[in-house]
Amino acid sequence: MRPKKTRWVKCEPGERCFRPQCKPLNKLEGVTMTLDEFEAIRLSYLEGLEQEETAKLMKVHRSTISRILDSANKKIADALVNIKAIRIEGGRCQIIEKRKR
């Protein structure tokens, strides 16, 4: 299997976790979303970019963005439908440094 290419992300990798309040912590399951999935969701849906533009910013092929978005959407749907927490961490990512003026 070919190694995954590094994806470039702008979001900070600090701890990000979202959990439903309607379920006790000891009974709560979770899904893990990678930083590249989170960034693809942010760019595509929040920023409204096309997959081609998102791919250029993350320095991967458009078909890779399509697969990343599909995976992220399934995880989000699983968490919403099955009342699970979402933790965002990991992935083969390089953080884009903010340029100083």
Structure description:
The structure is a single chain. The chain is an alpha/beta fold and 101 residues long. It has a single domain, classed as Arc Repressor Mutant, subunit A (Orthogonal Bundle), CATH 1.10.10. The protein has three helices and five strands, in the order βββαααββ. The strands form two sheets. Strands 2-4-3 form a three-stranded mixed beta sheet. A two-stranded parallel sheet has the order 1-5. Helix 1 (35-46) crosses helix 2, helix 1 (35-46) packs across helix 3 (62-81) and helix 2 packs across helix 3. The chain is elongated and about 40 Å long. The model has no long low-confidence stretch (mean pLDDT 83).
Chain-wise SSE layout:
Elements: E1 7-9, E2 16-18, E3 30-33, H1 35-46, H2 51-58, H3 62-81, E4 85-88, E5 93-95
Parallel strand pairs: 1-5, 3-4
Antiparallel strand pairs: 2-4
Supply database-style keywords.
101 residues; alpha/beta; Arc Repressor Mutant, subunit A; three-stranded mixed β-sheet; 40% helix; elongated
* Number of helical stretches of at least 4 residues: 3
The domain tally reads 1
CATH class: Mainly Alpha
Largest sheet: 3 strands, mixed
Strand order of the largest sheet: 2-4-3
Structural class: alpha/beta
Question: Which percent range describes the beta-strand content?
Answer: 15-25%
Number of strands: 5
Radius of gyration: 15 Å
Q: Helix content range of the residues, please?
A: 25-40%
Summarize model confidence as the mean pLDDT: 83
Low confidence ranges: none
- Spatial shape: elongated
Q: Please report the distance between the alpha carbons of the first and last residues.
A: 42 Å
